[in-house]
Amino acid sequence: MNTASTPAPPASATAPASSAPTQETRWLTDEQQRVWRTYLDAVTLLEDHLDRQLQRDAGMPHIYYGLLVKLAESPRRRLRMTELAMYAKITRSRLSHAIARLEKNGWVRREDCPDDKRGQFAVLTDAGMAVLKETAPGHVEAVRQAMFDRLTEEQQKALGEIMRIVAEGLQPSEAGADLPWLR
């Protein structure tokens, strides 16, 4: 159940038994609920669309494609696993599972980090680079058709700015922040 869309409780609802002061719930307005639900629908449909395209064309989900792209853009086509988890915005456990699957395909290999006995690098192999080059044109076309071809330049800029603000707000820099790649 989407708690952001939960209707307000009836006025007859009783207060919690706790003696601590309670903060009143800031329910979404009708317009905010409409925007929130539209956002959820769009993100869900877009991820499904891109996953299906990449499964069809390369036998991999969208998240794996993103990992290959990030490795391809990195010096020597390699990144520390913790850095890759941060870029992908996923837990280290989920990254480890994804890298294991990519290793089975021969698209990525792990290398020990000489400076840190616990650290590892994920390295994009030549086979991984080849599948990325083969898959990229279809993926770019899927992204364009699903998103950018539907928006004006002004809408694209506005969407980019909005998503930047949301992403920055969800990535606090203080110690102890609960971020996926730190779990």
Could you please describe the fold and organization of this structure?
- Mean pLDDT is 88; it is low at 9-15.
- The chain has six helices and three strands.
- The chain has a three-stranded antiparallel sheet.
- Helix content is 55%, strand content 10%.
- The two termini are 25 Å apart.
- The protein has helices at residues 30-58, 62-73, 81-88, 92-104, 126-146, 153-169; strands at 78-80, 108-113, 116-124.
Radius of gyration: 21 Å
Q: Portion of residues in helices?
A: 40-55%
The run of helices and strands is: HHEHHEEHH
Strand order of the largest sheet: 1-3-2
Q: How many strand elements?
A: 3
Q: What integer is the average pLDDT?
A: 88
**Tertiary shape:** globular
Sheet having the most strands: 3 strands, antiparallel
Q: What would you call the structural class?
A: mainly alpha
Distance linking N and C termini: 25 Å
The low-confidence runs, each spanning 5 or more residues with pLDDT under 50, are: 9-15
Name the beta content range: 5-15%
Count, helices = 6
Write the layout of secondary structure elements.
Blueprint: H1 30-58, H2 62-73, E1 78-80, H3 81-88, H4 92-104, E2 108-113, E3 116-124, H5 126-146, H6 153-169
Antiparallel strand pairs: 1-3, 2-3
Helix pairs in contact: 1-5, 3-4
Keywords:
183 residues, mainly alpha, three-stranded antiparallel β-sheet, 3 strands
Brief rundown of the structure:
With 183 residues, the chain is mainly alpha-helical. Helix content is 55%, strand content 10%.
